[in-house]
Structure to design on (718 residues):
């Protein structure tokens, strides 16, 4: 009898043990399920997350972005024959038309923003100039996030905004600005340093500034013009009958100024600063060569200056120094000084070439530029 | 036959001797002439005696290297050790400012500095004492240091203003003589590209290490709660990484404190950006535009918390110094934390 009781007790214990084990397994399964689902959410949450490039790709792109002799020959050839020069840059893709496949030249940031098809609600709700409302709401909504997630929020919303903007010719400037904003942030982030909170704040501020600028472009009914426009003429008088036109070079000037200001921040490393400044020269080169007045001598002079800087020892030295280390202060400052000198020349030379200004002070002068024959030809 | 041969040999021998005797003085003369080639000094002396000026040749290497090397006076590499310095208009007058120098965490040659007036408490209603915050970097091949003012830009970011153009004002610190020895004030400060402010009033300032070791910068006050008041009637409550500043009785603004680039500034300078809690969700809405800078100081009179608000000139800050209340909020909390008041 006793033996039977013992056997029963053992059996009961084993049943409890089994059930306990089963419970434990269940809990583990639940935990693992949670983990998996958590992993899934982490992976799937930023659906529109724009992939970051690694350091090496960015550094390679800095090497590939320089104006080359081949491009110069192409420009010269086009100038002689009066042909249209097709710029090798993001201008062709975002500044001009919504083309199905991006250009394949290495280092051009056109692949950065995936073209998501927004929900039909988005598409129908925000048409034409109502995109301004979408941007304002974006800023308001994203501000609800902490600085870190706010970067992702802005990026997600930017790809939606660009998709809603679609192929609207009047919103080229908007797409152009936002695409470059993402490109700049993605260039800075991998090098910005360990000061996460301050870096996140800096990037948020930059996105907000760029979105605000994009709104002002749409509000002012500004239209981006480049030499991709089929009907552009030879003189500035033909090219800028509308004072609201924004030439690519003028846009480039403003954008590079923003980058320059970002590079002065105390919160990023010297390496990130170098990457920013080198990227700025790339933008300058592309924008000058894509401008409507690309035949004019002052713009040619600026292009020559950018070409010299990009092919100088300073550029190569800085690029090799930032490959693995922080750059030497002297190398960085030399490069900074040379770029700053080009930037000081930008405004007067663009005005001389007949490019209308976006600065409020010179707005009146820009409106008269079409009638002023002395400035061109 | 043999006699003839003998005569021939003798003739050849005499000929050889004759030639040798002729050649010997010639070679001797030649060697003498070679050894006594007139030196440049001799030529110059001779020319001077004759009243002529010899041609002066150019040292091409020196021409092409002109300006690349530093003058022997300033040839010594300059390094400003971290610490507290007295700063004044001249060695005969009392110094009225402190310069707090800190070394950069990752880069030995760089650093940062805070310029504050010595007398915090002379803060009357309607008046303010300006403070300046600088990034330090070596210039002139490392023989001097540049103090580049840090300012807040229109986008709400902190930046060094010296890169705006090539003629932005800054301070240059160097040794007053080659080794800085034998002088009461071994350092000299020059204001480059104009005066930074009327606070200094002089183009040149002199500096020496302070005899006291406080005030000094402290790390982030993350433990416990800090509650202080300023002479202008403002109060501050710091808890965690938030600082709430109250002006008067109602107007309270909460700021999020983020340390400025801790890779360089070692978590000793904080950026204050506006933070508000959403009363519906309870979530904090943090602004990212930097509105003020803050420094936590120890020593001097009491423990001070300095809040710098940008004013007037770029890089100039109005200084609010907060003294801790006698009854601190920290008394309400247990544990109090490692600091002692």
């Amino acid at each position: 009898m006793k033996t039977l009781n013992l056997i029963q007790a053992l059996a009961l214990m084993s049943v409890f043990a089994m059930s306990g084990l089963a419970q434990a397994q269940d809990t583990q399964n639940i935990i693992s399920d949670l983990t998996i689902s958590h992993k899934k959410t982490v992976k799937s949450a930023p659906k529109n997350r724009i992939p970051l490039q690694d350091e090496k790709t960015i550094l390679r792109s800095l090497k590939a972005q320089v104006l080359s002799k081949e491009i110069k020959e192409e420009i010269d050839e086009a100038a002689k024959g009066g042909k249209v020069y097709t710029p090798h840059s993001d201008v062709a893709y975002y500044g001009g038309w919504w083309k199905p496949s991006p250009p394949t030249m290495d280092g051009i940031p056109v692949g950065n923003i995936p073209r998501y098809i927004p929900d039909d609600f988005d598409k129908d709700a925000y048409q034409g100039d109502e995109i301004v409302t979408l941007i304002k709401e974006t800023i308001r909504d994203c501000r609800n996030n902490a600085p870190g997630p706010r970067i992702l929020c802005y990026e997600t919303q930017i790809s939606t905004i660009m998709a809603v903007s679609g192929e609207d010719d009047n919103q080229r400037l908007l797409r152009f600005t936002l695409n470059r904003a993402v490109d700049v942030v993605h260039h800075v982030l991998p090098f910005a340093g360990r000061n996460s909170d301050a870096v996140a704040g800096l990037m948020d501020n930059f996105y907000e500034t760029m979105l605000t600028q994009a709104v002002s472009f749409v509000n002012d009914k500004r239209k981006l013009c480049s030499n991709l426009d089929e009907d552009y003429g030879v003189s500035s008088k033909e090219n800028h009958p509308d004072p609201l036109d924004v030439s690519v070079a003028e846009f480039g000037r403003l954008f590079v100024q923003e980058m320059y200001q970002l590079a002065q921040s105390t919160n990023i490393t010297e390496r990130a600063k170098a990457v920013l400044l080198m990227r700025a020269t790339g933008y300058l080169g592309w924008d000058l060569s894509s401008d409507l007045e690309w035949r004019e001598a002052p713009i040619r002079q600026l292009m020559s200056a950018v070409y010299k800087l990009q092919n100088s020892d300073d550029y190569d030295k800085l690029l090799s120094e930032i490959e693995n280390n922080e750059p030497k202060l002297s190398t960085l400052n030399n490069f900074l000084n040379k770029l700053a000198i080009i930037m000081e020349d930008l405004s007067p030379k663009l005005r001389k070439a007949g490019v209308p200004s976006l600065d409020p002070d010179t707005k009146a002068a820009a409106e008269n530029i079409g009638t002023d024959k002395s400035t061109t030809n | 036959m043999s006699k003839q041969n003998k005569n021939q040999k003798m003739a050849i021998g005499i000929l050889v001797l004759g030639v040798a005797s002729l050649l010997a003085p010639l070679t001797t003369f030649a060697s003498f002439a070679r050894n006594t080639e007139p030196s440049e000094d001799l030529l110059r002396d001779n020319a001077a005696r004759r009243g002529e000026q010899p041609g002066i040749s150019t040292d091409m290497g020196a021409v092409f290297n002109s300006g690349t090397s530093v003058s022997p006076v300033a040839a010594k590499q300059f390094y400003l050790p971290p610490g507290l310095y007295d700063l004044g208009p001249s060695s005969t007058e009392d110094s009225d400012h402190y310069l707090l120098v800190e070394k950069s965490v990752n880069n030995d040659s760089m650093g940062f500095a805070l310029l504050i007036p010595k007398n915090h408490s002379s803060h009357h209603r309607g008046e303010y004492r300006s403070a300046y915050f600088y990034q330090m970097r070596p210039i002139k091949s490392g023989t001097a240091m540049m103090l580049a003012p840090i300012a807040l830009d229109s986008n709400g970011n902190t930046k060094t203003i010296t890169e705006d153009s090539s003629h932005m004002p800054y301070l240059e610190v160097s040794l007053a003589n080659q080794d800085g020895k034998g002088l009461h004030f071994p350092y000299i400060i020059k204001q480059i590209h104009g005066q930074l402010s009327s606070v200094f009033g002089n183009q040149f300032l002199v500096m020496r290490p302070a005899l006291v070791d406080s005030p000094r910068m402290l790390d982030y006050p993350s433990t416990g709660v800090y509650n202080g008041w300023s002479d202008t009637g403002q109060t501050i409550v710091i808890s965690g990484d938030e600082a709430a500043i109250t002006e008067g009785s109602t107007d309270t603004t909460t700021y999020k404190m983020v340390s400025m680039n801790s890779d360089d500034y070692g978590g000793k300078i904080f950026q204050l950006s506006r933070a508000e809690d959403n009363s519906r969700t309870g979530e904090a809405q943090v602004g990212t535009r930097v509105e003020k800078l803050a420094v936590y100081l120890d020593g001097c009179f009491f423990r001070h918390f300095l809040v710098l608000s940008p004013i007037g000139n770029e890089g100039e800050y109005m200084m609010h110094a907060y003294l801790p209340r006698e009854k601190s909020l920290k008394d309400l909390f247990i544990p109090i934390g490692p600091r002692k008041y």
About this structure: The two ends of chain A are 119 Å apart (CA to CA). The CA atoms of residues 312 and 335 of chain A lie 10 Å apart. Chain A touches chain B at residues 143-144, 146-147, 150, 193-195, 197-198, 200-202, 204-206, 208-209, 260-269, 326, 329, 336-337, 340, 344 (CB under 8 Å). The beta strands of chain A are 223-225, 245-247.
